[in-house]
């Protein structure tokens, strides 16, 4: 699993991605739903881990095995799809969308290590590195995605065209 700092750093990137998509779906960049989706994206980035804790007990032990139900990819993808489909129709859609973006970012950060995540039925791992190692790669990739999506939505890809001019044509 990625470190707690990596999950927080990727959570801010997930919040920016969610806010950009919510802003693009309607309401503009200053709509309250944009801020709510950002906050929920940051919270969702650590949710698969804190949802496992039995907050109702004094011991605060896990009520469910780590990386099982709360790390299940289908559940997070379903929340993302349903909330995206209801953006603009429900006041809960934007925060739910942000929360799902954060949760999926958490799964993507955990995926490279040997324990993996249960995307569909069983766990799958990319087996790239052990837990806590190479967090910079995960954080950089999440922020690159946030920059690309944010730049596309808020700057209307004004910086993408010069990049394309320098690419070799095959």
Automatic annotation (TrEMBL):
Keywords: Hydrolase, Membrane, Transmembrane, Transmembrane helix. Pfam families: YdjM. GO terms for molecular function: hydrolase activity. The chain crosses the membrane at residues 6-23, 30-48, 68-84. This is Metal-dependent hydrolase. It comes from Paraburkholderia podalyriae.
């Amino acid at each position: 699993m990625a470190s707690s700092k990596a999950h927080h750093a990727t959570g801010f990137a997930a919040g920016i991605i969610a806010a950009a998509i919510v802003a693009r779906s309607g309401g503009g960049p200053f709509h309250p739903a944009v801020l709510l989706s950002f906050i929920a994206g940051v919270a969702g980035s650590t949710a698969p881990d804190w949802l496992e804790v039995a907050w109702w007990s004094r011991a605060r032990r896990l009520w469910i095995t780590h990386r099982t139900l709360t790390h299940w990819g289908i559940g997070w993808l379903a929340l993302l799809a349903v909330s995206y489909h209801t953006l603009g129709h429900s006041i809960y859609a934007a925060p739910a969308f942000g929360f799902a973006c954060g949760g999926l970012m958490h799964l993507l950060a955990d995926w490279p290590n040997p324990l993996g995540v249960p995307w569909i039925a069983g766990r799958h791992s990319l087996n790239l590195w052990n837990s806590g190692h190479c967090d910079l790669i995960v954080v950089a990739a999440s922020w690159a995605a946030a920059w690309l999506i944010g730049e596309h939505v808020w700057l209307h890809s004004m910086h993408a065209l010069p990049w394309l001019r320098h690419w070799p044509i095959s």
